[in-house]
Specification:
alpha/beta; about 350 residues
């Protein structure tokens, strides 16, 4: 008789091997954060496959990986609040956004966008940075993003306070050159210093312009409002070439016509979206550190992000969610939805209608 593998392997047990295979398969399914339905790309774990209270709390319950290998886009968290000037707590923003994102489904029925039928997306976790030294934290973030985007992956970032945009833009400049920016905020964040410091959540875009990270003639700031230290507070931004749209200019109207102008302004060159949740009125997003009344509605926020469709978006962030000031989780849920909307306008997304 010719010996077979079964005969030559002294410890082989067919029943035990089959049982191990069944256990491995069951374990893999129980730990998975993905439900592919036969597709070739990751997609969120459906509420029909796992109750929304279950599963791993990744962004939209997507698979988690430690780098951007094989990804067209990724969600990444920066749990930082050491640059804030009023109420802290944004270090918990990424965690709460991920928790609330379990409610966000795979398809954008309003626009027809279907990003999970278009390319590979995953949650790559959080940036590790020095929590006790803000300049060093910015260096850590910049170095992380250099690697993250080295293959062209498009990062959608959960903040974290608005300081994080500065080192992200530093890394973006190295790959793409000066970027255009669609900036939604109650504040310009173009101060020179805060309490004598050059780096804080009120200074990122002054630093970004000084270092050539932004093309100031392709920057628009939407929703600025509130009391200021002087009537000249936004003059520096305007003098650089920023278009500044005050919140009062947005009251009682659709922002779709404005976004048509923005698309002409940005052209086909790289664009970054930076959405400070305090750009929305605190009636819609109370969980933030520096709220200002008279802001944008959540509907206008959607119009702005959806209006970026067709732009060469190479990255985006959603910042300043501070969960402790909104016990209902509405602010984080709004942030999760806006990040999904950013995903839906990235280049290469299929629209199914």
């Amino acid at each position: 008789m010719i010996p077979t593998a079964h005969h030559t392997c002294r410890n082989y047990n067919p029943q035990r091997t089959a049982m191990k295979r069944i256990v491995r398969t069951a374990l893999r399914r129980s730990l998975s954060t993905s439900s592919r339905h036969g597709g070739k790309y990751n997609e969120p774990l459906s509420g029909n496959d796992m109750p929304r209270s279950g599963g791993i709390a990744s962004m939209m319950r997507l698979p988690v990986q430690t780098d951007s290998q094989g990804l067209k886009a990724c969600f990444v968290g920066i749990p930082m609040d050491i640059g804030t000037s009023n109420r802290s707590g944004t270090r918990l923003g990424p965690r709460q956004i991920r928790t609330e994102s379990a409610l966000v489904r795979r398809t954008n029925i309003a626009t027809g966008a279907s990003p999970f039928d278009s390319f590979q997306v995953a949650d790559v976790g959080d940036v590790n940075f020095n929590l006790y030294n803000l300049p060093k934290a910015c260096e850590d973030i910049r170095d992380y993003y250099r690697k993250l985007i080295s293959n062209g992956c498009i990062p959608l970032t959960m903040g974290g306070d608005h300081t994080i945009s500065y080192p992200i833009l530093q890394a973006m400049k190295e790959r793409y050159g000066p970027l255009g920016m669609v900036h939604i905020d109650a504040h310009s964040d173009t101060s020179d210093t805060m309490l004598g410091e050059k780096i804080a959540h009120g200074t990122p875009f002054r630093r970004a312009v000084e270092e050539g990270c932004l093309d100031p003639h392709r920057v628009i700031q939407i929703g600025l409002r509130g009391s200021t230290y002087s009537v000249e507070d936004y003059d520096w931004a305007r003098n650089q070439g920023f278009r500044v749209v005050m919140a009062e200019e947005c009251w009682h109207k659709s922002l779709a016509p404005l976004m048509s102008e923005v698309r002409d302004m940005m052209g086909d060159r790289p664009v970054y979206i930076s959405f400070d949740i305090d750009g929305l009125d605190p009636a819609f997003a109370p969980g933030t550190g520096t709220p200002e009344i008279g802001g944008l509605t959540s509907i206008q926020g959607l119009e702005i992000v959806r209006g970026c469709r067709g732009l060469n978006v190479v990255g985006g962030d959603l910042v300043e969610v501070s969960p402790s000031y909104d016990l209902n989780g509405t602010t984080a849920l709004t942030g999760a939805n806006l990040l999904f909307e950013m995903l839906c306008v990235l280049p290469g997304v299929k629209y199914l209608r």
